[in-house]
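Morning F.,

Quick status update on the modeling queue. The single chain you submitted on Monday has been processed. Sequence for confirmation:
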Amino acid sequence: MKKKIKLLSLVLTLILAMALFVGCGSKDDEPADSDNATPTKAADTAKDKEESKDTPTATPTPLPPLKLTIMLPYGTNEHDDKELTQRFYNDIETYTNTDLEFIFYSSDMYYEKLALTLASGDVPSILVTGKTAEFINAVENDAFWDISDYVYDYQNLGQLPETVFQNASINGRLYGMPRSRDLGRNGFGYRLDWLNNLGLKEPETIEELYDMLVGFTYDDPDGNGKDDTIGLGVTSYAGTWDIMQVWFGAPNGWGIDENGDLVPAHLTKGYDDALAWFRKIYSEGLVNQDFNTVAGGDWDAVLLRNSYAGATADVVDRFRRNQEYFENEGIPAETMIIGAVDAGHGLRTFPTAGYADLLAISKQKITNEEDMKRALQFLDDMMDAEMQNLVTFGYENESFYLDENGYAVHMTNEEKEAVGFPTYNFKDGMNQLLPYYQHPDETAKTLTTAPPTSEIRLMEAAVKIENAKYAVPNYGASYTSETYNELKTSLDDIVNNARIQYIMGEIDDVGLQEAKDQWLRAGGQTVIDEMNELFHANN
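Structure tokens below.
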């Protein structure tokens, strides 16, 4: 059964008192305990509207199920007509008081279909979308609900961090529920066994990191007597440089200058200092010289798993996966994961946006405010423990069981067959519907698998948590420049190409400045002006 949030409102207390006075209530009714209040920004929650069921005078008329069409990636409708899938859908509909239709597309088709859907105007009730130009255009045409003033009215959705709210918003307003992801996912990994072989200190400063890269490149860290290693492995993926440049004081996208104005990262001293260091380590051969031609997808095979590169900056789960590869293959390697080193500005980490796409509510299908609130209530209900357990694990003793410690264990196909349970994935893609914000009361009832015990997984989890403490905010993340939307590709190319050319020594300081001036002339100055107009209007 759905949990009911106890009301704190004085009005309801008075109603309850009046009901008792006229003899319509039970003498056992008591005022709500304030210790059980939901700690959201709003005084009441959307679920409060149903609380009248708990009072002796309330006899609300049940609402009919809310019809929702939902478009999601990474799933399939292949099994929709099967009995188990129907059971799964029906259980969700019963719990949430909805009538649901799901439209799934595979990962390689979804975003193409999304663009066509947004362009067609035939938009489902709820869909997953990024802050693409197409979505922003649809928002400007009033195609999606602004949920900014409602999201904190819900006990689960209301756990949304303010930082993520800002990152996911468009000019300070939120047009979809962000789907939570780790803020501290980016970091730095290196071969600890190589470091120990060389007798070097684990790097905490940029100078110590430089010494490590020199040793990894020139001092035979693997002890095979061959010149076959490199310090820093980099691909054409620009994220490696983004992660490291904030160490030097560069902003994360947009910073705030001494005048209180927004300034793009590439026009700051911290950016120049970072590029000077990148140019130095490249010129000294501490970076693979072909980095700009190495595809991001080739990272592990070309650079890391063959013990060629000893370090890089990327998502920390890459380093965990590679360590597990080494262990599975019997390769005597040891990986260390850190968040950052101090390059003179203290610890600074390059965060993710803290979310992956939005669950946006269409005004075409959801035509009034009350139904919009019910759609948000549906997303909130999906983060109740009962629903999250269902979507994550399925049915107890049919698709999962609880071990002796109370942890959920996914059953194997053989175990499912033994109890007559189908082996196809009846909930494929449904996790894409979960925002993953949850009130602590629900978290306490949500099933989990056994926590990791391997050293590398524990290290990964600890670094993600620690990284969030030093995350550098992007002060311009919530603002959208129309000029930038129009010229994004050409403007980004100017900056990105100049950075690569400068690192590789193809242009000097004069050439770098010329590229910055070109960016300003090509529309960058207008972008700065538009961003600051929005920024100051909202601050």
